[in-house]
Amino acid sequence: MRTKILTLLSLLFISALAYGQNDKKSDTEISDPDSVGEVSSALLPTTMPLLLFDEESKREEKKEKKKKARKNEWFGIKVRKGVLVDEIRGQEIVQLFNYTDAEYRPDPYIRDVYWYDPGDKSIKNQGYVAGEGYLLHGPYERLLNEVTVETGMYFYGTKHKTWMLYDQRNVLQDKDHFEEGWPRESRITYYDRSSKTIEQITPIQFGTKEGNYFYFYENGQVAVTGEFKYGEKVGLWTEYWNTGNTKAVRKREIQYQEEPYSDNFRPYIRAEWDKDGKLLYRNDS
Fold first, then answer.
1. Which N-terminal stretch is annotated as signal sequence (predicted)?
2. Across-strand partners of 223?
């Protein structure tokens, strides 16, 4: 019995020591995020997403349309109904939505993940943390002065299937199609289509580049990530070394305009690292 207790105490001591070391590393990274090029694999996906927009998924969508949703259940998941009412400049905006408390980790490649924050009673599309809110799941409708101006479907926080936008006379203005968060117009190129080996994903929405861009090495590891807004590169674009999917190490970061069509902004290299993650260059401007 004494031996078991001593063993347990030893394990607890080792765990506490490891925890303290991890905290120390995190503090260093927070104080100087450029100190090393290696980043947490939890923050950076290192395998490509599944094949998108294939004929099989279209057939499954047609089958789904033929099924009648059970009461308070969508795609086999129980949901709750929610209503948000706001008044902006004398206009009443009502949002009718469904949400779920089911445990689910959204695809890390998806830029916009929609969730209900019960704390400030709002719907957000950034910063989702499991346990702090609820992913939207099921039908969504937005009304402006009692006129429907937007309808769509969510799948675990991502836009799914057909989304419609209307004017205040309820005349259709735009229609877009999504597949679990991916605009279905998105362009995909392959190293080998038969093995579904994706080379790059260019997000296209309403005929314009909009969303997260990805380029992959042939082994499936992500090589380049960035974001488009209204057809323009924005924010920080990151290139990664090919480490054979063993770890994620930044190679170079290029800073683009924060908002599209910014006048007199010239992109510049913000930082560079070697293959071991050692910082080689940093622009502090």
1. 1-20
2. none
CA-based nearest residue to 60, from 50, 75, 48 = 75
Euclidean distance between CA atoms 180 and 160, whole angstroms:
5
Q: Is the pTM of this model over 0.85?
A: no
**Tens digits of residue pLDDT in 124-175:** 998 898 889 999 999 999 999 999 999 999 999 999 999 999 998 989 998 8
Inter-residue contact 47 to 220 (CB < 8 Å): yes
Label residues 42-63 b or e (16+ Cβ within 10 Å = b): eebbbebbeebeeeeeeeeeee
CB atoms within 10 A of CB 117: 14
The DSSP-derived string for 181-241 is TEETT-EEEEEEGGGTEEEEEE-EETTEE-EEEEEE-TTS-EEEEEEEETTEEEEEEEEE-
